[in-house]
Amino acid sequence: MLKPATTDLDALRILEERLRWLSAWTIHHANHVRPSPDGLKVGGHQASCTSMTAIMAALYFDALGPNDRVAVKPHAGPVLHAIHYLLGSQSLEQLENFRGFGGMQSYPSRTKDRIPVDFSTGSVELGVAITAFASLVQDYLSAHGWLDDADRGRFVALVGDAELDEGNVYEALIEAYKHDIRNCWWILDYNRQSLDSTSADRMFERFDEIFKSCGWRVVELRHGKKLAAALDAHPRLAEWLDGLPNADLSALHYQGGAAWRARIEADLGKSAAAFLKTYDDNALAALFTDLGGHCMESLVEAFDSARDDVPTLFIAWTIKGYGLPFAGHKDNHAGLMNPTQLAALRESMGIAEGREWEPLEGIGANARPAVEAVLEKCPLALDKRPRSFGSIEVPPIPAPAGDEQSTQAAFGRILLDLSKAGGPLADRILTTSPDVTVSTNLGAWVNQRGLFRRHKTADVFAKAKIASAQKWAATSSGQHIELGIAENNLFLMLAAAGLAGDLFGQRLFPIGTLYDPFIARGLDALNYACYQDARFILVATPSGITLGPEGGAHQSINPPLIALGQPGLRHYEPAYADELAAMLEQTFRLIDDPDGESSYFRLSTRSLVQLERADDNWRAGALDGGYWLRSPEPGAEAAIAAMGAVMPEALAAWDELSSDLPGLGLLAVTSPDLLHRGWTRAQAARWDGNREPSHVETLLSALAPGAGLVTIADAAPVALSWLGGVIGQRVAPLGVERFGQTGSLPELYAAYRLDQDAITEGIAELLLPA
Ligand SMILES: Cc1ncc(C[n+]2csc(CCOP(=O)(O)OP(=O)(O)O)c2C)c(N)n1
Ligand SMILES: [Mg+2]
């Protein structure tokens, strides 16, 4: 497809220059002009910005449509804000407050920035990979009939070249290929520099091969039009330039025209004399600076010619610090121009002192109308998209029947029942798992609802009438996305599906399952999902040493601590199926609530005898983090606080001890995370005059102020031992502090002190005089 003749390249070039100025000035202003109350360096990345200004001008002012979504390389955040400033959708106050409290963020943030940010970035590469999963979610929504073709868009990632060193690029690439994703552009800002230095030459041309073998089109923008023409005329020079190592190239870009001349003379001798004669030093530097990623014509042409849906990698050669005094210098990553250098840049751009923020300052009357026309016709969404909440009704979720069951089995059963009952919630659930669908008990759900693939794939085993409990056919109406084993991808998938309400106005209820210890594999991506306020449910099972014979490599210890420290994610660890059902109902609602959050369930394969409940009074407490399973008598001297799969040991200990210790309480902790949050929030609220006690304070104040608490969980003991600090009660903490091992449950519980005897000893320790 050819570019319509209307693209005004000169206007785009002027806008590129303006982005270069505004991003540099915004950073300069925050560092050198705005008063600093604490003397801390504010920082910012002028070089990383100008490396991308041409790419971003061509993209935002020409190539993008209103449905396209972009993940911007974190250090080019100021360029994105400058674009919105020029379009009138970002305020001067926000730019002036760059990296200040309440101001525009250092790195684009969906939740904190006031401009529309499609994907947060900051932890390098996660923003890149999520675009592949978002395009998969778009296909999922289309296939289910929830997205009109007119509302479909392209997913674009602006990628720093050092980001390609992150392993999760390749995990995402593989998964994307398996799912045949489309409408995805990754635009590589190939400045051959990372944070510390210039990058290794050996990867040159390897990236092309990797992407091509995963079905991507690779478009290389190495030389701009002028440089390409000059090199065409001088093949030896072209060959020489092609062979220059990254570090040499960067050094020459930094040194400028005279250095280019000297180096060419030294390397090519007389054969280059005629060429060199035609350029003075400045012209020579300008010529070699004309790389593809800075050549507006090349960029516009390249984006135009890739408008089909084939996933495309653009390798745009650039110079880090393009147009700035430290262009190409290996140390320029966090480099800041000094005031003299900044003033020189300002003057070179025709911007008068004192008018630095004027959007089109210094643009002559002849050029102005064309620039204004480009800005006016730019079809980008200028406002943040409204978030979609409350669209799907969540029905009551009954507890699955069964006198004895594990929470993992109950989870599978609840999903199966939901599926059979049908309804909008069941239809909007999207499940996903990194190759542990069956072993996390999602199998029955998948049998009911099917695997999702854009193109139908048959279940070969079923066709051949080979007996199997698991159906494995995929269709475009399936609701389970099977991933390869890469937990990082699981969290990116959950992040993308958990943003469906925000990105597409269509709520999904994503549920991801994995083994509890392997949360650690994808931790940064989990944090990234929460940081963007994506909404999903994570079901981690099995967990703890309760896994018995599976052994220490699969027995999780610290995920409850991870959850305690993770904003945006609530941890539930039920012991019983009815608790789990109540919690799932609650967490489905939280997905679709503007003030909600994501949830993490830590489930077990241990089958427990279920409780006969006299009433529903336990329910509210269980949802808030804990309830008295055996109420203490007022002022009781001791209690057991137990969580999850070890509840039978706690109940047995209570049965035995309560005859000697009348009034002994047994607290069922269902979420240390919620109890802790409630506690600290109530404390903070007291300073605002609200004296309402938190749930955990209310629970524990049923005991005597100096009472003893035995806390027990199949997890690091500190998950519960902090309970002693709430009122100042003494604690005997039980839990797992060493790596697990294989064994039967009685053996392991005895060895790790998670049994009834340990609880009894704990109580004795607390109550008997030393
Ligand atoms: C996961 C992660 N590790 C480390 C960093 C620190 N860091 C920020 S930028 C960067 C290198 C950036 O190089 P590149 O991606 O090539 O971007 P450029 O600035 O050259 O355009 C590093 C290591 C980070 N932000 N995220
Ligand atoms: Mg780089």
Features of this protein?
single chain; 770 residues; alpha/beta; 6-stranded parallel sheet; 5-stranded parallel sheet; 13% strand; elongated; binds thiamine diphosphate; binds magnesium ion
Structure description:
This protein is an alpha/beta fold and 770 residues long. The chain is built from 34 helices and 20 strands. Helix 6 packs across helix 22. The longest helix has 25 residues. It is elongated, with a radius of gyration of 30 Å. The structure holds thiamine diphosphate and magnesium ion (MG).
First CA to last CA: what distance? 86 Å
How would you characterize the largest beta sheet?
Answer: 6 strands, parallel
Q: Helix/strand-derived class? A: alpha/beta
Percent helix range: 40-55%
Task: Round the Cα radius of gyration to an integer and report it.
Answer: 30 Å
| Strand ordering within the main sheet | 10-7-11-12-14-13
Q: Could you list the spans in which at least 5 consecutive residues all have pLDDT below 50? A: none
* Shape verdict: elongated
Percentage of β-strand residues: 5-15%
The count of DSSP E runs of length 2 or more, i.e. the number of strands, is 20
Mean pLDDT: 96
Tally of contiguous helical segments? 34
Q: What small ligands are held by the chains? A: thiamine diphosphate, magnesium ion
